[in-house]
């Protein structure tokens, strides 16, 4: 579900940024709707932070246009772009109290002292730190400091909130909690938000839409479900969640040939028969248990290893017939208990036709 | 944990109390319209800063180069001056003498300083802070004080002259000993830094593999410190080649480059030949600069974020030996300077050892009396005040403001340049540039203002690097956050960057003050009749034979410099401790 309306709030077109011979961003086109929460997701060096900094005006693009609220701000300095920003390092002014930090952007405007104080109190309450105004940043925990940074960014009521890996410096537990809080806050304020992250779980949990980036280009834009269920490229499939890839050749009709095995696949029809593809499927999509040899895409495998990962087991399965590689399957702890699997055991598993994805063989960039 | 649960519940509450708050949020506050634009102000500031550095650093240095290619009567001479130089035996002799003295000083002082640095960093001997302070003492006096002290100890009337076996202290022996004393703290600082940057894990690994102490020293300690050793050797070599005060006081008839340059310019008015000598002095200095750059790049990679600092464990024999060694070296340093101070209170060395304050009545020795001291004080205070502002603001512009990249790159280069330029050469450049008839700035010549500008330029680099280092430690996103909050950079500078860097700013002030009080070489060409400085008065009084007064004036300078350092310590201890309370993790309540 997206909450986009007809006219985009932020529109980026043909945005390119080079550092010498290195192209950090290569012709980025993107639209973001009013009130949307969008995540830029990708490995380090993919250009996601560069894109955020260009939108903020902290760096200048070599080519392309940026429009915010239908106003061309391509060459406007940051101060004219009306955004709030939160960094991974918090970037709180260490010599100012929490209250003074939050008030930093308000003091500059002609506002009465009492109104500033009221606004600071309101914001600190909003982020759950109502009694901390007199403390210095160093006296707060990392999670608390990041809430203060958030309050400071929201103080001037910007129309756009930019979050640059805001949770990466925090412990796992604090990170999960703060991520829910930020999401709730964003929904309630309805503020258009862009968050840069390299953590796919964070992006899937928080975003209305995810922009997956790689090597300065956008690989796919879509809702978390879309990019997880229907990854547009092998890169997206591999980066979001886990995926096993096997080399395959497209056959006639719905058939696809993997090693010496023919499988039924819904996804290979876009390709010319005989062309090579990469066949991918997710570990949790492999059906283990109550599979009979006559089922569609049933394969006999031997359990090579079983890895206990808390709530589930990850099994490495060696096909009895040549598939050109091992399979990885996740099965819940319950199912594992029911099946009483053990290493070395033979059994049949099924690769459901709807779960198989065919990707073009990666072209060299 | 309790606290985080509490914040959690508050958070939920505030979320539940949503609608009212949410309604009040989108309210827009009008941003004050800012005239003129931030970008314009920043660009103008960077351009102005560039221009300043060009005038006080680049143009004077360029003048030295041009002057060396001029004939004494004006007109182009090409490389003729250099040919004349190298075909004149007396001139070449000075060059060889300089190399000899500098080489011997390096050979003596670097091993001595290494041993001292080792004792300070790698043992558990007692009174380390005190020994460090003693060793740094020469930094607070003009270089020629050690020369004056030696004339009392080893000179014709010296009480220890017997140990020279009849050789005269006036000449290479005296210069070398005095330069050793003067250069010791410079080498020590570099070596202490090098030995402190060591990974304790390497020693644990060596010891886990059963490596002996000598082998550990040869395979871990020395390799870790070798960049520091090379750097120290170059720095000492350069200091000695370019030092003017010591050879002037104790060089006797032994000519060296620095005294030669002075003789050519002041004595014979042969400006082009003075420029040639100046350029020769520039060679080791530039070499040292290049080597130091190279080394710093490598040295930093020796220590990773995962390194654990080495911590010495008690080892009685080593610690006692170190204590003995440190006491010996510190004793020589403090003793030498002590003798000079003591001698300044002696009525008539060595015949009448009764104490007197007569030598502090400078009017008896020099017609200017105490005036040079007040000149020095005024000059040093203005260098410190103006310099601190210029250096810190300049470093901020280069480091934090992202406009006019070409201008910032030029400024950075020029700010680093003075480190490679001996004071005497810079002084020559100022003579050539600010004394030129065509230059409208020649009204400054002979004024205290020009002395102050010259001194600031001379010591610019170290101050600049100190300021830059402090600014680099500040989160680079502060300016970005400010821009997003529509706060101009100068407000962030005033409210955040400057207060955070206050300890560094004070450090800069004292550094510039101490050096301005003690410098001789850069300003020896530049003073006018009414702007003679204390350090120059020392040279004059020593030349006139009133050595006790020279020692007295040097002692006054040293006392002033030490007082400034002490004041800084007090300010740090009492004032900053209160204003920097935000650095402490515990609540001040």
Describe the 3D structure.
The complex is a heterodimer of chains A (365) and B (589). Helices cover 25% and strands 33% of the residues of chain A. With 365 residues, chain A is an alpha+beta fold. Chain A has two domains: 10-238, P-loop containing nucleotide triphosphate hydrolases (Rossmann fold, 3-Layer(aba) Sandwich); 245-360, RNA polymerase II/Efflux pump adaptor protein, barrel-sandwich hybrid domain (OB fold (Dihydrolipoamide Acetyltransferase, E2P)). In chain A, strands 6-7-8-3-9-10 form a six-stranded mixed β-sheet, with helices on both faces. In chain A, strands 13-12-11-14-20 form a five-stranded antiparallel β-sheet. In chain A, strand 11 and strand 12 (255-258) form a beta hairpin. In chain A, helix 2 (98-107) packs across helix 3 (113-126) and helix 2 runs parallel beside helix 4 (142-154). Chain A is elongated, with a radius of gyration of 25 Å. The model of chain A has no long low-confidence stretch (mean pLDDT 90). Chain B has a two-stranded antiparallel sheet. Chain B has helices at 2-16, 18-24, 38-68, 80-87, 89-122, 128-136, 144-154, 172-196, 200-208, 213-242, 245-250, 257-267, 271-302, 316-344, 371-400, 405-416, 423-434, 448-458, 460-472, 478-484, 489-500, 502-518, 534-543, 547-579; strands at residues 346-348, 352-355. Chain B has 589 residues and is mainly alpha-helical. The radius of gyration of chain B is 27 Å and the shape is globular. Chain A: Keywords: ATP-binding, Cell inner membrane, Cell membrane, Membrane, Nucleotide-binding, Translocase, Transport. Chain A: It holds the Pfam family ABC_tran. Chain A: One of its GO terms (molecular function) is ATP binding.
